[in-house]
Amino acid sequence: MYSPEKEKELIEKTRKLLELSISDIKSIEDARAIVEDLREVIRYHDWRYYVLANPVISDYEYDKLFHLLKDIEKKYPELITPDSPTQRVASGLTKEFPQVKHLAPMLSLDNSYNEEDLRDFDRRVREATGLDVVEYSVEPKFDGAGISLVYEDNLFVRGATRGDGIVGEDITQNLKTIKTIPLSADFKSYGIKTIEIRGEVLIRKDLFKKINQERLEEGLPPFANPRNAAAGSLRLQDPKEVAKRGLEAFVYQITYAVDDEGNNLLGTKIRKHHESIKMLYQLGFRSPYKEIKVCKGIDEVIDYCYQWQEKRDEYPYELDGMVVKVNDISLYDKLGVTSHHPRWAIAFKFKARQATTRIIKVVFQVGRTGAVTPVAKLEPVEIGGVTVSSVSLINEDFIREKDIRIGDLVLIERAGDVIPYVVKVIKEARTGKEQPIVFPKNCPSCGSPLVKPPGEAVWRCININCPAQVVERIIYFASKDAMDIRGLGEAIVRRFYELGFLRSIPDIYRLPYDKIKQLEGFGEKSVENLRRSIEESKHRPIHRLITGLGIRYVGKVTAKTLAEHINCVEELKDWSVEELEKLPDIGYVVARSIYDFFHNQQNLKIIYELKELGVQTCKEKQETVEHLFDGKTFVFTGGLHCCSREVAQEIVERLGGKATSSVSKKTSFVVVGENPGSKLRKAQQLGVKTITEEEFIQMIKDHIPEDLRDKVSI
Ligand code: IVH
Fold it and tell me: Whole-prediction pTM value?
């Protein structure tokens, strides 16, 4: 934590340092003075960036400061200190992890699942302490990998995994790559010489999704959940790889603290848990400072736990419950510990996101790119309020690694909006009747032999006319994220394919409406609606058409990037791989895939046929983005009357703004609809401007893009 004056001073210092270059450093005395300043400002900017998520300099400027420090340290290695920000990424491989003894045992927590359990816990605490009303602090229970950090004389000297609770693995080098773990902190100002802190290493949910998507595209098995991803990353042998995983750390408990004379400070100088959390925050750590609540008595505790259970999905990190701790640390000794857990704390566990069920059979689905995915059909089971009846088994390697068989009892996890995943097979439940899963040699749709390109984990059908692929491509083309053709959903596409009406994407624009009218389930009106939405789709912005083409690795984000740099879709046939790679967020693999797509005659034929049939392949006038909302970020909460949330978000984007799902200090407006959620509260807390739906409509009403007008009623 920095005072406003200190921040001003540091920003001023930053500006001066940014003007310097290595050639200005003429002597070691010069260097010594500047190195100190550089480290101080870099630490400050790390804190703004990683802890507050609100940087005050650009990435470029930050890199410049960092490189200057590195250059000076290279010239004068004697000035390197172990807490210099340059020491975060160690260069050598760790090979193995030595064992270290924790200063205090790393205990786990007793669990509670409902109000009654919490009341029992409170009764036990009251009986043991003789208090009528106990003060508790309640904070989230982070679902990551537990860690223990030791600081001595202000320096981070050791970090370890939990291990068996008494001895853990020394992963100091890996932990040093995590920017939310300060390499030094001013514990001395609190009279602390040696301190041990417990915390959790986590990966943000959105980043986790991205990592998994990349792993799937590379043919690697995805991680089951953010916890496994964090734990796996922490134990990587190369700290440089660890640094790339985007790990973060929250600290939530001081388990050991002594002064220069070896006096214990816990319960004496450090008296209240919530104060220790604040102290850690002020020293530059990520701690649940904003999330923690001090509750007087168990009723408030119960309320707060249930409040968080409701909003756990909105929180950027995975939580598996709340932790209720007696706030007065001096009572810890009196309450004591069992062999496994302290009696002064308890976990309140949220509804489980795992369940066991049986695999009934396995089917093989052919996707639009020809990839064959094994899918297990399950005995339906409820997980976190959703019924799950099938789960992807990813690929052949995954099945083999986990030794999954038909008839097996399996543990399934569904974390948040992440797709369900097989965590493990309950082998103990096997009867001997389980059947191995046999991967087909031929495409289940067209019968052609499947191929597995070298280095890939996925079997593919490479017959471009394979019915399953064609159907999937048409379904995708018409889907909401692509051309958004209402009335042309999955079932209708399959039916029209069977009837021979739809054998390619352009056939959508040649449908025999006369014949369709005579089909069962179709009336004059529904056919007219279908015809109308197909006609409308001819004038969609071209990024939707690009998405709809189903180019491998090109989702709606990349499609938008491409659309920003061209006028007509067909122009892409003239782009080289190198040119494509220069576009933001497009690497070699994606560029190559786009290039290959536009160098395939069949694909070009589809584009030209679509053009012939009246589908807009070039930008129309209304597509040129208006700049009304340039630089503005909108968040919507609650129901809207004018239109769907997706349409409102698209309007914001088409007018140059951004629509995001969570409120931060950077949000310009929170649009409040009917029955708003917790985002409204968050906006009020952060002082973000809130507007009503009417006010939003006033802003946009003269600027709604033409092709969206019929989706808005005002
Ligand atoms: S306190 C002596 N607070 O949950 C008790 N633990 O199931 C120290 N955890 O091993 C733990 N969030 O890895 C505490 N806010 C929190 C936590 C938390 C997550 C983990 C921790 C612990 C496990 C127990």
Answer: 0.59
